[in-house]
Amino acid sequence: MRFLLRRLGFFVLTLWAALTLNFFVPRFMPGDPVAALTARTRGRVSRDALEQMLTSFGYKPDQNLFVQYVEYLGNMFTGDWGRSIGGQLGEPVTGLIGQALPWTLGLVGITTVLAFALGTMIGTVAGWRRGGWLDSLLPPVFVVTSALPVFWVALMLIFAFSMNAGSVLPGTFNYDNSIVPGFSPGFVGSVLQHAVLPAATLLITLIGGWILTMRNNMITTLAEDYVRMGRAKGLSPRRVMYGYAARNAVLPNLTGFAMSLGFVVSGAVLIEFVFSYNGVGYLFYNSVQNVDYPLMQALFMLFTVAVLAALLIVDIATVWLDPRARSADAGGR
């Protein structure tokens, strides 16, 4: 219980610090929503008229900063995230996020889990058969793929599969605009087709890190006494590999995986931008471009809560899975 209370206290303190930065940093950035709207309207609307319009959507530049901060904290915790004062002027922020979030969870979430699962399995086998052909081939290849810029991989895939004559994989947007959205085979097929290239980009750039990390963890774990004991007891190689070595080697990866799942909510900004994929990352990019305070603040809070919640869950899972962590926690009481 004390462990859980400490973690919850850390969660609350970190969330408060992140939300405070989330409030002040955008306001110290160059520009303001009125200037951004003036540029978009090319000066056809007076600044006073734009200020009045934004005020009706909750923007209060003349209000005391501390009062704004207190109201902002209250609104963040009550879910009253206001209305967009940027590109989609007057639209409820919750509605904009609700439209974009499923696309990001479907694309980035599934790909992240797939990259972790495949990387962990391949890394387990490579580490177990250290010095074999698989172990000799994979590290050099995936060191290179992990270092490739995401946007470069995305552009190369678009060039190879979307720009050539007879290409069948689309390189932009979430689905074919000519199809009415719904749970029809045509729409679902279009969504899957449009997701192939961005998902492949993510998989290529993510999987190498998991393979290399798991391989190195396996090599370290294989030197432990409990693995030698399992072999000495005559257990099958498969049981020693998965039940003794892999089970313990994967524990250090759980924190990294939890953070990856937390960052899933923030989307892959570069990938969504390159592919014009209307997820949360693309929405966040547009909110920064348009100096849209309410949307920026709500998205940043969502990202922070997702990462912190993922870390809290993995801390609890690690204590549950690893008896050594439970012993360390009991000894610190």
Automatic annotation (TrEMBL):
Entry keyword set: Cell membrane, Membrane, Transmembrane, Transmembrane helix, Transport
Family membership: Belongs to the binding-protein-dependent transport system permease family.
All residue ranges annotated as the ABC transmembrane type-1 domain in the record: 101-314
Pfam families named in the record: BPD_transp_1
A biological process term (GO) from this entry: transmembrane transport
Subcellular location: Cell membrane
GO cellular component: plasma membrane
Principal place of residence: membrane
Entry's transmembrane regions: 103-125, 137-161, 191-212, 249-275, 295-321
Taxonomic path: Bacteria, Bacillati, Actinomycetota, Actinomycetes, Kitasatosporales
Name of the protein: Dipeptide transport system permease protein DppB
Membrane topology: Multi-pass membrane protein
